[in-house]
């Protein structure tokens, strides 16, 4: 649903209900769009809520609890495979690599991937992008995630950090800033980046029901334009400036950790430079899903990705 609110000056502000799958520095361009007023410039008021996990986020979208979801593209493939009459369409890409880091409880300076063998690995949800990208990388490194490690996947997404902090697992996959927080607190040490190892994929995208995009074409274009402005802002400003801008979204995290986390993501080019989700990345996503045994069926780029909005926005900016 789209709500129209009349402002004091008579100008209409469009309200968009947005759900993010987690709260992470990985989504810096989104918070920049909010903090730097890019949504407001477009006449949009974004009501942002964190839904903590792919299943919960997609449920909120399908049940009309939100208008737009920021979530892994794989979820749209799962929904489509179930025969959705109103398919979920990816229309703007935010991140283009995996956003997780491998954190080791052992703080030795020398790391090699074979150290994971016969160890307990606190993994992510089965079928979720973090877990599939993680398994993809492990296999590239000669490790069978089903046989060579003791893989734990029974812990709810939001509780994984606390579980590791309380002593579960030798290794864990974490987003920033949580990974750096644990490193500073002496709980573990960042030893590898899954983003660097797994290559370019449409890891997190903005998506909405096809019916919403048709009914709210202008609003979706404005939303995408604000995101593109934020992507350009992140690219042209320092990590220190970005950290200061989004600090209110991480009030319990030290500014220096926010800054170093943003810099880490910038260095490995995790933030998409524009919102266009191209076909090559889409095919890589499905290759990773297929490798994990989680791809229900091959789905064409044209079927679940709308690039027209993002292409129009980038062409006219």
Structure, described:
With 317 residues, this protein is of the alpha/beta class. The chain folds into two domains: 3-96 and 202-316, D-Maltodextrin-Binding Protein, domain 2; 100-198, D-Maltodextrin-Binding Protein, domain 2 (3-Layer(aba) Sandwich). The protein has 15 helices and eleven strands. Strands 1, 2, 3, 4, 5 and 11 form a six-stranded mixed β-sheet that branches. A five-stranded mixed β-sheet has the order 8-7-9-6-10, with helices on both faces. Strand 1 and strand 2 (12-20) form a beta hairpin. Helix 1 packs across helix 10 and helix 11 (239-246) packs across helix 12. The longest helix is centred in the C-terminal third of the chain and has 20 residues, at 217-236. The two termini are 28 Å apart. The model is unreliable at 1-10 (pLDDT under 50).
The share of residues in helices is 40-55%
Main beta sheet, described? 6 strands, mixed
Name the CATH superfamily classification of the largest domain. Answer: Periplasmic binding protein-like II
CATH class of the largest domain: Alpha Beta
Counting helices, strands and paired strands, the structural category is alpha/beta
Q: Strand-residue fraction?
A: 15-25%
The best one-word shape is: globular
Q: How many domains make up the coordinates?
A: 2
Organism: Bacillus swezeyi
Keywords: Signal
Family: Belongs to the bacterial solute-binding protein SsuA/TauA family.
Protein name: ABC transporter substrate-binding protein
């Amino acid at each position: 649903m789209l709500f129209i609110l009349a402002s004091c000056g008579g100008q209409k502000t469009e309200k968009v209900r947005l759900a993010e799958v987690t709260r992470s520095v990985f989504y810096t361009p989104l918070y920049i769009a909010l903090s730097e007023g890019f949504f407001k410039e477009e006449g949009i008021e974004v009501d942002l809520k964190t839904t903590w996990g792919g299943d919960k986020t997609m449920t909120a979208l399908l049940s009309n609890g939100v208008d737009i979801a920021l979530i892994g593209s794989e979820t749209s493939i799962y929904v489509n495979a179930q025969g959705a009459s109103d398919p979920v369409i990816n229309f703007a890409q935010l991140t283009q690599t995996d956003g997780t880091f491998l954190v080791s409880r052992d703080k030795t300076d020398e790391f090699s991937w074979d150290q994971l063998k016969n160890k307990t690995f606190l993994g992510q949800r089965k079928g979720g992008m973090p877990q599939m990208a993680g398994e993809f990388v492990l296999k590239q490194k000669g490790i069978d995630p089903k046989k060579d490690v003791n893989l734990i996947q029974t812990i709810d997404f939001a509780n994984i950090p606390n579980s590791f902090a309380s002593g579960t697992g030798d290794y864990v996959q974490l987003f920033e800033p949580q990974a750096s927080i644990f490193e500073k607190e002496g709980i573990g040490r960042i030893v590898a980046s899954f983003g660097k190892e797994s290559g370019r994929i449409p890891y997190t995208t903005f998506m909405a029901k096809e019916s919403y995009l048709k009914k709210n074409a202008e609003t979706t274009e404005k939303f995408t334009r604000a995101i593109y402005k934020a992507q350009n802002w992140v690219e042209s400003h320092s990590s220190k400036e970005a950290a200061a801008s989004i600090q209110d979204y991480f009030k319990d995290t030290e500014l220096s950790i926010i800054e170093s986390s943003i810099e880490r993501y910038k260095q490995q080019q995790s933030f998409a430079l524009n919102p266009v989700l191209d076909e090559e990345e889409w095919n890589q996503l499905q290759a990773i899903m297929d490798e994990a045994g989680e791809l229900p069926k091959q789905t064409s780029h044209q079927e679940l990705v709308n690039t027209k909005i993002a292409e129009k926005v980038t062409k006219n900016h």
